[in-house]
Design goal:
Helix content: 10-25%
Oligomer: single chain
Strand content: 25-35%
CATH class of the largest domain: Alpha Beta
CATH topology of the largest domain: Rossmann fold
Number of strands: 20
Bound molecules: adenosine-5'-triphosphate, magnesium ion
Shape: elongated
Number of domains: 2
Length: 372
C-alpha cells in the first residue's frame, strides 16, 4: 500500500511560509497533480515528501509509516525533476542502471529492470547510446526510466515536461498517463500548467501562496471552483468574471450589472434569491456564451446584444472578444460564426452554468455538487 498522507504540514524558510498547513490524503494508485502559480509551494510540498527538505511542523505518512525522520533513500520513492541531468559519459543503459548499482542490486536483476523499463518507454534501441546522441524527448524518457527501474511505491515528478517543445509535451503527457496505468503506482505530479494537470491527473490540488485552495477531480474544479482563485486559474481561456447586484422578487431573480441586465433561469433564481440586494462576482465560461445563430437545441440561454471587438478563428472553434454593455467577455463559439470585428451580434448566455462568488471572502456562493 502506498497511500500518502500530509497531516497539517508547514514549511518555513526564515520568514517565508512556503507550505502552510497542508493536509492531503492521496489514495494508493492515484495520480495527483499539484498545480498553482510560481512560488505557490508545489515543489516544496514534493521535496518534503521526498525528504529533500525538512518539515517545520506536521507529519507525512507513506502507507502507515511516519516518514518525517526517514532518510530519502529509505522512503520507497523515486523523483523525476525538470532538469534531469543525465551523466553525459555514460550510456543510456548505465544512466538507468546507476542508482541500482549504488544500492548493490544484483547484476541480473539490474539488467532485467533496465530492459523492462526501456521497453515500456520505447527506448530499448537506444540503450548503448550516450545522452548527447538523443533528442530532448528521448532524454526525458531516460530520466523517467531511471525512476522506473527503482520500482518505487510512489513516483514524484516535478515539471518533468517543461524542457520539451509544445508538440513533444503533448505526446509525452499521454505517455506518462499510460505509464501510470501500466505501473499502477501512486503518482504525485507538480506543474504550473493547468492543462497538464487537467489531462493527466485523477485528482488535482490547486495551491496558492503555500495553501491548498481546492482538491477535486478535474471536472469538479472546472464546474464548481470553490473560490475566485480557482475559478481564474483552471480553464483556458479563463472564466469571464463580472460584478453585479442581485435583484430578487418572490420567485424570480436577476442581475443588475453596471451596463447590462440578466434575467436568471429558475434554478439559479432559487439559488441566489436569498442574496437579493447583494453585490456579487459572477463567472461564466467562454463556451457558455454562444453565437445565437448556432445555439444547439436544448440549451436554455438568454440572448443579448454584443459588440464584436476581435475575432480569432482557431479552425475547430472561434474565439470572440465581445462587449456586452461595457463589460468585456471572451466567447468560444461555433467556427461557422459570421461575427466580424466592429459589428453587433446576437449572443446567448447559458446562465444555468453561472458561478457566483462573494467579493469579500472570494468564496463561491450556493455551491451545488457536480451532477455529471
Ligand atoms: N531553499 C529555499 N530557501 C528559501 N526560500 C525558498 C527555498 N525554496 C523555496 N523557497 C520559497 O518558498 C516558496 C515556494 O517555493 P516553491 O519552489 O515550492 O514554489 P513552486 O510552486 O514550486 O514554484 P515554481 O512554479 O516557480 O517552481 C517561494 O516563495 C520560494 O521563494
Ligand atoms: Mg517548482
Amino acid at each position: 500500500m502506498a497511500n500518502v498522507r500530509f497531516d497539517h504540514v508547514t514549511k518555513r524558510f526564515g520568514k517565508v511560509v512556503a507550505v502552510d498547513d497542508f493536509t492531503l490524503e492521496i489514495p494508493d494508485r492515484d495520480f495527483v497533480a499539484l498545480v498553482g502559480p510560481s512560488g505557490s509551494g508545489k515543489s516544496t510540498a514534493l521535496r518534503l515528501l521526498a525528504g529533500l527538505d525538512t518539515i517545520t511542523s506536521g507529519d507525512i505518512y507513506i502507507g502507515d509509516r511516519l516518514i518525517n525522520r526517514i532518510a530519502p533513500r529509505d522512503r520507497d520513492i523515486a523523483m523525476v525533476f525538470q532538469s534531469y541531468a543525465l551523466y553525459p559519459h555514460m550510456s543510456v543503459h548505465d544512466n538507468m542502471a546507476f542508482g541500482l548499482s549504488l544500492r548493490h542490486v544484483p547484476r541480473d536483476e539490474i539488467r532485467r529492470r533496465v530492459l523492462e523499463a526501456a521497453q515500456i518507454l520505447g527506448i530499448d534501441q537506444l540503450l548503448p547510446r550516450k545522452p548527447r546522441e538523443l533528442s530532448g524527448g528521448q532524454r526525458q524518457r531516460v530520466a523517467l526510466g531511471r525512476a522506473i527501474v527503482r520500482e518505487p511505491a510512489v513516483f514524484l515528478l516535478d515539471e518533468p515536461l517543461s524542457n520539451l517543445d509544445a508538440k513533444l509535451r503533448v505526446q509525452t503527457r499521454a505517455e506518462i498517463s499510460k505509464l501510470h496505468q501500466r505501473l499502477g503506482t501512486t503518482f504525485v505530479y507538480v506543474t504550473h500548467d493547468q492543462i497538464e494537470a487537467m489531462t493527466m491527473a485523477t485528482r488535482i490540488v490547486v495551491m496558492n501562496e503555500g495553501r491548498i485552495q481546492q482538491v477535486g477531480t478535474p471536472q469538479e474544479l472546472y464546474e464548481r471552483p470553490t473560490n475566485l482563485f480557482v475559478a481564474g486559474f483552471i480553464g483556458s481561456p479563463a472564466m469571464n468574471l463580472f460584478e453585479g447586484e442581485i435583484a430578487a422578487t418572490a420567485d424570480t431573480a436577476s442581475i443588475n450589472a453596471s451596463t447590462f441586465h440578466l434575467e436568471l433561469p429558475l434554478d439559479q433564481a432559487r439559488r441566489l434569491r436569498d442574496h437579493g440586494g447583494e453585490k456579487l462576482v459572477f463567472g461564466i465560461r467562454p463556451e457558455d456564451i454562444y453565437d445565437l445563430a448556432f445555439l444547439p437545441p436544448g440549451i436554455e440561454a438568454q440572448s443579448m446584444q454584443a459588440r464584436v471587438d476581435v475575432v480569432e478563428p482557431l479552425g475547430n472553434e472561434t474565439l470572440l472578444y465581445l462587449l456586452i454593455g461595457e463589460q468585456q467577455f471572451l466567447a468560444r463559439v461555433d467556427a461557422r460564426t459570421r461575427a466580424t470585428p466592429g459589428a453587433q451580434m446576437n449572443v446567448a448566455l447559458n446562465l444555468s452554468r453561472l458561478n457566483a462568488f462573494d467579493p469579500q471572502s472570494e468564496q463561491a456562493i450556493a455551491l451545488e455538487p457536480v451532477t455529471t
